[in-house]
């Protein structure tokens, strides 16, 4: 029996509306909703599959990829296709180039054509993919020939590290499971604080970069608290050392040397209120340390589904390219 997944999505619209209302309450990003909805629909809304199919390892099944596409179309109709354009799915980071912080644009997913104008792979990479180069992540491509071999190697190492950690942290956060309400409210904001911190540092104004360091502090603080809440505990306050000690009780031992690179919480509050400035180079060091801590913390989050480097083979819809 052949299933029209588009019709199924329409028939199950009451489920999709319910899921979307939950996502709205939890501030789940729009681009994450189609895949999450498909997962929830399989788990909660589909009681029987065509003969020969099962829900076992459904993530690798062709029918699940078709369902994701159908639900993506439902969301594009609901919110408008522009809400799902490429710039909405970019993550932002920064690296040093010629001694100046510059922005990286990191796609959360990449598309790899299998058959031209027919099929392509949708990939969720957790590092630089084989189809990408370090130049892929710069909006304005720098002239790498102007760098010495040592400078080029250093830049490659920076980009590789930032892309890998950024992608892995977001996969960890987006697919964390069994979160209580307080953790759901916090998890959606973790990466937003990082990107606000990146934007502040990129102003190259020390007083604004200082506010960015407060944002990075909040990102790490919330990540700790999400993990602690997921394990049935609770803690308040801004002290990252206390949060780290609490996390030790559930098996997380962050690198203390990295933790010490973040300003004391009282200093971070001074940054927040403009009572203290920070040198731009120091702010970049805070950003790198925060990234590493976020990776260590979020790796401990429980996930029902791990999609690092997962691939979906998608058929080009017949409406693509129509005038």
Architecture blueprint of SSEs:
Blueprint: H1 5-11, H2 13-25, H3 33-45, H4 62-79, E1 90-97, E2 100-107, E3 110-115, E4 119-123, H5 149-174, H6 181-201, H7 206-230, H8 240-248, H9 256-259, H10 265-272, H11 280-298, E5 311-315
Helix pairs in contact: 1-4, 2-3, 3-4, 5-11, 6-7, 6-11, 7-8, 7-10, 7-11
Structural notes for this entry:
With 323 residues, this protein is mainly α. It folds into 3 domains: 80 residues, no CATH class; 79 residues, no CATH class; 129 residues, Nucleotidyltransferases  domain 2 (Four Helix Bundle (Hemerythrin (Met), subunit A)). Helix content is 50%, strand content 10%. It contains 11 helices and 5 strands, in the order H-H-H-H-E-E-E-E-H-H-H-H-H-H-H-E. A hairpin with a 3-residue loop joins strand 3 and strand 4. Helix 6 packs antiparallel against helix 7 and helix 6 runs antiparallel to helix 11. The longest helix is centred in the middle third of the chain and has 26 residues.
Give a quick summary of the entry.
It is built from 11 helices and 5 strands. The protein is mainly alpha-helical.
């Amino acid at each position: 029996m052949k299933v029209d997944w588009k019709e199924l999505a329409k028939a199950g619209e009451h489920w999709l509306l319910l899921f979307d209302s939950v996502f709205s309450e939890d501030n789940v990003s729009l681009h994450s909703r189609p895949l999450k909805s498909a997962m929830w629909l399989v788990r909660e809304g589909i009681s029987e599959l065509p003969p020969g199919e099962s829900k076992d390892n459904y993530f690798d099944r062709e029918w699940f990829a078709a369902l994701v596409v159908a639900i993506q179309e439902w969301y594009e109709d609901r919110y408008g296709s522009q809400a799902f354009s490429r710039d909405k799915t970019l993550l932002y980071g920064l690296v040093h180039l010629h001694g100046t912080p510059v922005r990286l644009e990191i796609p959360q997913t990449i598309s790899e054509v299998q058959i031209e104008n027919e099929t392509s792979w949708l990939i969720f990479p957790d590092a630089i993919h084989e189809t990408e180069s370090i130049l892929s992540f710069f909006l304005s491509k720098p002239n790498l020939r102007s760098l010495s071999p040592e400078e080029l190697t250093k830049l490659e190492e920076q980009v590789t590290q930032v892309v890998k950690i950024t992608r892995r942290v977001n996969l960890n956060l987006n697919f964390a499971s069994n979160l209580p309400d307080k953790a759901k409210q916090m998890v959606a904001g973790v990466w937003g604080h990082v990107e606000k911190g990146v934007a502040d540092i990129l102003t190259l104004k020390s007083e604004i970069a200082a506010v960015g360091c407060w944002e990075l502090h909040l990102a790490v603080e919330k990540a700790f608290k999400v993990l602690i809440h997921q394990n049935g505990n609770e803690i308040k306050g801004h002290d990252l050392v206390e949060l780290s000690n609490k996390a030790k009780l559930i098996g997380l031992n962050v690198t203390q040397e990295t933790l010490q690179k973040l300003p004391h919480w009282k200093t971070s509050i001074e940054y927040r209120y403009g009572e203290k400035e920070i040198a731009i180079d120091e702010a970049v060091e805070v950003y790198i340390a925060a990234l590493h801590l976020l990776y260590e913390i979020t790796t401990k989050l429980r996930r029902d589904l791990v999609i690092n480097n997962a691939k979906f083979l998608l058929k080009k819809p017949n409406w693509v390219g129509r005038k």
